[in-house]
What does this fold into?
Amino acid sequence: MIALALAQLACSSTERPAARPAQPAPAQPDVVFISLDTTRADALSAWGKTGGRETTPNLDALAAKGARFSWALAAAPSTLSSHATVFTGLDPHATQIVRNGYPLSTEVETLAERLAANGYDTIAVLGSSSLARPMGVDQGFRLWDETFSVKRAQRHEARAKSVTDRALASLEQQEPGKPVFLFAHYYDAHSPYSPPKEFQHRWSEPGKAKDFGTQDGALKGLGARMRTDDPSTWSADLAEVRNNYLSEITYVDTHVQRLITALDPARTIVVAFGDHGETLGEIPLRPFGHGGDCDLQETHVPLIITAPERLGGPPPGTVVQTPVGLIDLATTVLGLVGLAPIGEGLDLSPLWTAESTDPTRSSSTERASAERASAERASAERASAVGHRSIFAEATVPDAKRPDVWNNIDTERAVAVDGFLLLRSAMEGGVARLYRIADDQPPVDDPVRAAAMDAELRAWDAKAPPHRDATMSDATREGLKALGYAE
It folds into this structure.
């Protein structure tokens, strides 16, 4: 039980303070979700794209203990919609989340509700008001901690240290005898890129440190320069923006480790994921931020899953190359704890079985060998189904001029299948563009494939919900403005 691990962590070998009587470990494993808001996959050094800088040694170590998914894709490039997909296994059309500020319906079942109904204590600790209780993703949680210490306009935030402190304190009060589902939400990587002083410019080049800590100040000015000036005048500043962003990531990694240390790996499922990414100079029209595009900079996120071997968890050091969706997390976890799936996501466990199989293994009996071969064929078939299905996404900065259709129908849309990504945007004249799901998103000239994928995307859009009117409070609307999601 996590509470017992915390007690052991806090006590020295010579002096132990009074504590609650030890409880027998629950039969079910604990489940911990670590949400890394606004975190691109390539910001984690385990993905090998940080130029040799060890930005996330602790998350890298976690990945080495289980499975790292090289190409996990978010269903939407904004916090509320993406988390709604994570907790329900439903895409943005089914959750009907337009963007931040549009609450999840109480009619939708969540992962927390399913776990609570099966004996779990459910605890959440937030790093931002973008997931505050009125947004509906708190459904099923006994405790939803919104204690924020930093205020930016109407947006309230908490630093990573506060999130971990409160998570550890909450776990000490978990209901006795119950397994726990903990959701810890780390928000620091979101702009402005301004980590605590001791982490500032952690990755800056000597003598080139510079602050880009506000959306409306230097960062906005840099974006304007990038659209008009010669790159030689701003390339060093762009590199420093990226360095500041990575410093935020390293700060979060430090405090995530404090939480990981308190967990009992023998009985804990850990899922660490980014909810969406961040553009850092790649898209000229919107060089910084997220929400307006479905390019990989905004939708390719880190995903790490560890779980005890007795539950069928991934072998240490597994790297899954097949693209997957955050829509799959709820069903995957429910499968590990022996519960029926929710939503439309798929169980990812066949992927780590198929992609970590050792072909040199031998068996002492012919029967065992045949049984293993049959099981491996079945796993391979399930893995193939995961790899060949379509994963949809849509941008979340809607045009308010069309109140007769689904709010996001004219935003950029995406479908990923078989290692390819197709994007379509009204701003690009509605022309479909095909890319490889790979570093730098290389374009592909394959009209037949593009037409087939575009037909899938249009079919998905044909089933979109009707227009959803905003019902948010003035405070919520002001918070969206502070986040850059509303005018």
About this structure: The domain at 2-13+24-349 is CATH 3.40.720.10 (Alkaline Phosphatase, subunit A).
